[in-house]
Every structure is written in C-alpha cells, then in structure tokens.
Amino acid sequence: MLTRLPRSFPRPLRKAALSVLAVCAALAALLLGTGAPRATAAGSLPCDVYGAAGTPCVAAHSLVRALYSSYDGPLYQVQRARDGAKTNIGLLTAGGYADAAAQDSFCSGTTCIVTEIHDQSPRHNDLTIEGAGGAGAADVGAPADALPVTVGGHQVYGLEISAGMGYRDNSTSGVAVNGQAEGMYMVTSGTHVNNRCCFDYGNAETNNMDTGNGHMDAINFGTECWFAPCYGQGPWVQADLENGLFQSDAGYSRNTSDTGTGPLPFVTALLKNNGQNHFALKYGNAQSGGLTTTYSGGEPTAGGYSPMHQEGAIVLGTGGDNSNGSIGSFFEGVMTSGIPTDAADNAVQTNIVSAGYGGPTGSTGTLNPGSEISLRATTSCCGTDYVRHQKDAAVISPVTSGSPSLDKNDATWIVRRGLADSSCVSFESRNYPGDFLRHYDYRIHRQPMDGTAQFRADATFCPGTGKSGTGTSFASYNYPARYLRHYDHTLYIAGNGGSHDFDSTTSWAADVSWAVSSPWAP
C-alpha cells in the first residue's frame, strides 16, 4: 500500500518581486555580519533565491526541509520491513520542515529504508535506489532512522550512506548536457567520510557506466586524494568530472590553504561549472559564516573536459559508474540551470545557516528521546569524569566548566529511541551526527549507524535503577547480563565477574551506575 501526499509545485515567477527583495535582505545580512540567524522569510529559501537570480533549480532534494517557500509536497518515501508497505514523508507546513513524527509512527515496531527522494522542483527528477553499474552491484536503500538531527528546532532525519548504498535518476528533465552551464550544492557532514570512491551529488552518466572524461559534473566530498598533492587531512570538496576528483585544472590542489573542512558536523559543499572553460569549488560551515572559494579557474587540462560532455543523470552517494565504496551524509542539495552568481551562492549560504542545523533539541537532562545529556561516573575515584568519545573509542575523563569546548561536545549525547527496541535507548554523539555508542568485542566505540540488525542490537541499552543504589545502570540489549561499565577509564559492557579483567567484581556496582546530568554542550 502506498500513501501519497498531494504535491503543489512552486511558481517562482509569480513570486519574483518578493524573491528579489529576499535576496537583497539576505545579502545585506551577510555583508553587515548580523548575529544569530533569523527565522526564514517567505521567498528566501534556496530555490527561491536561485530562481530570482535567473538560475532556477532543476533538482531540489532534501530529507529535512522545503527548498521553495511555496512547496508543500512529499520530501521522501520510506518502506517498512514488516510488510513492505510504503509511505511518503511530507512537511509540517508549506515551506517548512519534515514531519519526522509521521516516519516514526509508520515505522514503529519495525525498520524502514528510504526508497525515493522526491524532487521539489517542477522537473520531477526524483531519485530512486540505484541499480548495478560498471563498478558496483545494485545498491540498497539507506536506513531511514540512521541520521536523526535537529534542524530549526525540529527533530528530523538526514540520509546516512554506507558502502553499497546510492540513489539515481537516469531519465531527467532540464539537467545540463553537452557543455551546458550548471551549479549545485549539498549540505553534508565532515564527520562521516572515507577515502573510497565516490560520495557524489550531481550530474552523471545515463547508463551507470564510465563513458569518458567530462561526462560527469558532480560534487564529491571525502578524504580520497585522486591527484597528489592534496593538503591537510580533508575532507575536501572536489569535482568529480569523471576519471578524476579535481581540486583544480591540474587535478591536484593548487591551493595550499585548502586543507579540508575538518570534522565540521554540517558542511555546505558547492560546485559550479560553465561547461566550457571554467569551474569553481566552494565550501562553508553550514552552521555559521560564509563560503570559502578553494578554486576558481579553467577546466581540467586533460582532453575531454573543455567543453564538458555531461549526460544529465543525477547521482547521490556513488560515482557515475556506481562506484559505491564511499560513506557520507546528505541533508539537502539542489542543481540549477545556468551558473549561479556569487551573490546568489552567498544568499543561499545565509539561508542554510538560518535553517538551524544541529541546534539544541529543546530537552536536557533526562532519558526521554531527544534529550541531550552527559553521563557522569559515580564511583568514588571518578566523580568528575564523564563518558566521552576520543579517537572513536568511548572513555571517561574529567570535564569541568573550564574544559575546552571540544571536550564538552565530545561528552554530550542525544538520547534516541533504542535502535533495536524502542523501550530502551541509544546514544547519538552530539558533534558527530549519526554516530552512536555501540559495543564491539565488549568494548564501547562511537561508530556511524549502518542499519544492520547487529549494529542496532549493539547500540541499544536498557536503563534501570543503578546497581549501587544510585543513578542509572544500562544493560546491553543483546547481552542483558552485561552493563555499561568504566574500567581503567575505558568503557565496556561488563558482567559482575568473568574471565575478562573488565568483569572484575571490585567496585562493579558503582562502575555500572551513572548519573544522568545536564549536557556539557548546549
């Protein structure tokens, strides 16, 4: 059974006057350096901005919000495992944020995958799960609940891509072909990346094969350095123009200051290409500030790139030939007809910042889903130590009001419904969206949710009265005799006695009892 919501499509021309005013206001705010972002005004969403600037969106994909102020249709479709039923997830209000509660209700008691990402533009360039290609077998859908996030004060879901996942549309309308100009951006994350090919969003081949140089024009985001040298550790915003991830016309980086975005939770990645002799790359912090241009210059000097030979398909999460070994996060993205002005790009970045990615959940200090917390040890040795992640491992260490902001963020967790059992809880990292505490070989790690049943079980903990008589103890969902314990400042799931050192009975009851406290990071 497929439940469909009504779709109403934007009419950018009818709102041109309002859109132009909105662009001017957004640019003024950017230039004046105004402080906290204001509520989004009608006519100022990304596709309104680009439309008013004469480069209308031909694709507008988002799981979290509308990209036109008049849009009131579905954002994406989910399918549940229990019975194969599908439904569309829409908006709370026209031009607003996703109705994630509808997903939670539909998927209650089972799991769901994302099967389709709707195009909000009048072009209907919807993305479905990608089929087999020259470099990869057919993909699978991403788990619908893998990337919970707060945007604009609303609890919504992004799209978390693991290897073997991807989306595509090989039969599009209005997308650039054969050297036509286009622009594109996506909001992604610098905390969920790898060095495999290829986490892309943009223009690709129509047959899932590598058909030669210049047949792609897509944003790539990750830590793969195709042409040395690359500077820093990445991740970098690069152009996948087929047969190379380009940071300049030479392929390798000509910009020694472009060391990558680092582990920013939310990143704006932008590419624009006139299809003939010029392309540009930009990035920004999607939570604050403006855009940085890392390259603006000629097309690659190798043959086939000037002019370009785009084919007009749209790909998300893989390379053009379905190279699908990459990981990545996707929240929103658009493609335009024509190359946008820098002023329009800046206005769009201002709007993205105003959307409120990763803001406070509005709840703190409890084990209710959506509450932000910190977990303090109660053992007499360690009363100022908190659970934090450090190099992907979970440890305890002192955190105080004078601690660096990184320590405070690392020690803050968002309570989520248990990934394997909604009566229990899971703990999502505050500053690594989509990463959860899970046990592996008894040790606790911070890892990205991959949607597997094993991960769901390993990342689910069931709270009860503290074994020491104070605080809360958390039993492992799939090893219920084992509890979340600190031992020698490292976290494990531990039994009260056993063959491992961390199963020691000494101070076990205190070590598995935790104080649920207000979060260190807002």
TrEMBL record:
Signal peptide: 1-41
Keywords, comma-separated and alphabetical: Disulfide bond, Glycoprotein, Glycosidase, Hydrolase, Signal
GO biological process, one term: pectin catabolic process
Active site, renumbered: 242, 321
Name this protein carries in UniProt: Alpha-N-arabinofuranosidase
Span of domain Alpha-L-arabinofuranosidase B catalytic: 46-357
Keyword Nucleus: no
The keyword Glycoprotein belongs to this UniProt entry's keyword annotation: yes
GO molecular function: alpha-L-arabinofuranosidase activity
Domain Alpha-L-arabinofuranosidase B arabinose-binding intervals: 375-516
InterPro entries: A-L-arabinofuranosidase_B_cat (IPR015289), ABFB (IPR038964), AbfB_ABD (IPR007934), AbfB_ABD_sf (IPR036195), ConA-like_dom_sf (IPR013320)
Cysteine pairs bridged by disulfides in the record: 47-57, 107-112, 197-198, 424-462
Record-stated family: Belongs to the glycosyl hydrolase 54 family.
Transmembrane domains' residue ranges: none
